């Protein structure tokens, strides 16, 4: 399976709070907070509805923001990687 086709979903322990254009995620196990910018919020909210691939997430981001496909894929891949590393998102 291609990396961009893998599906990701939210960790069951993460607590999300939308603050308008930004958001905060709390990991109660670690007692850590993480911030998301407005694009990160779009990605998070998309994963919250159902597991999504990076390709699907980029499509959603590109429907809202004018961003190059390759740049979007790189940015979303980096964000997903950070969220996975933090244990906030897991591979489905």
Task: Give a description of the structure.
This protein is α+β, with helices and mostly antiparallel strands. The chain has a domain at 3-11 and 39-91. 43% of the residues lie in helices and 25% in strands. The chain has three helices and six strands; from the N terminus they run ββββαβααβ. The chain has helices at 38-49, 54-64, 69-85, and strands at 7-10, 15-18, 23-27, 32-36, 52-53, 89-91. The strands form two sheets. A three-stranded antiparallel β-sheet has the order 5-1-6. Strands 2-3-4 form a three-stranded antiparallel β-sheet. Strand 3 (23-27) and strand 4 form a beta hairpin. The radius of gyration is 12 Å and the shape is globular.
What secondary-structure arrangement, pairings included, does this model have?
Layout lengths: L6 E4 L4 E4 L4 E5 L4 E5 L1 H12 L2 E2 H11 L4 H17 L3 E3 L1
Antiparallel strand pairs: 1-5, 1-6, 2-3, 3-4
Number of helices: 3
Sheet with the most strands: spatial strand order: 5-1-6
**Alpha-beta content class:** alpha+beta
Series of secondary-structure elements, N-terminal to C-terminal: EEEEHEHHE
User: Which runs of at least 5 residues are low in confidence (pLDDT < 50)?
Assistant: none
Average pLDDT works out at 91
Radius of gyration, taken over Cα atoms and rounded to an integer in Å: 12 Å
In helices, the fraction of residues equals 40-55%
Give the DSSP E fraction (strand runs of 2 or more residues): 25-35%
The main β sheet shows up as: 3 strands, antiparallel
Alpha-carbon distance between the termini? 13 Å
What characteristic shape results from the CA principal axes? Answer: globular
Q: Could you give the count of β-strands? A: 6
């Amino acid at each position: 399976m291609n990396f961009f086709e893998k599906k990701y979903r939210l960790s069951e322990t993460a607590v999300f709070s939308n603050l308008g254009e930004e958001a905060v995620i709390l990991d109660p196990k670690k007692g850590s907070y993480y911030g998301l910018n407005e694009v990160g919020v779009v990605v998070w909210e998309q994963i919250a509805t159902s597991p999504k691939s990076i390709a699907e997430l980029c499509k959603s981001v590109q429907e809202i923001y004018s961003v190059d496909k390759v740049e979007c894929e790189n940015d979303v891949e980096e964000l997903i990687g950070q969220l996975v590393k933090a244990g906030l998102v897991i591979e489905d």
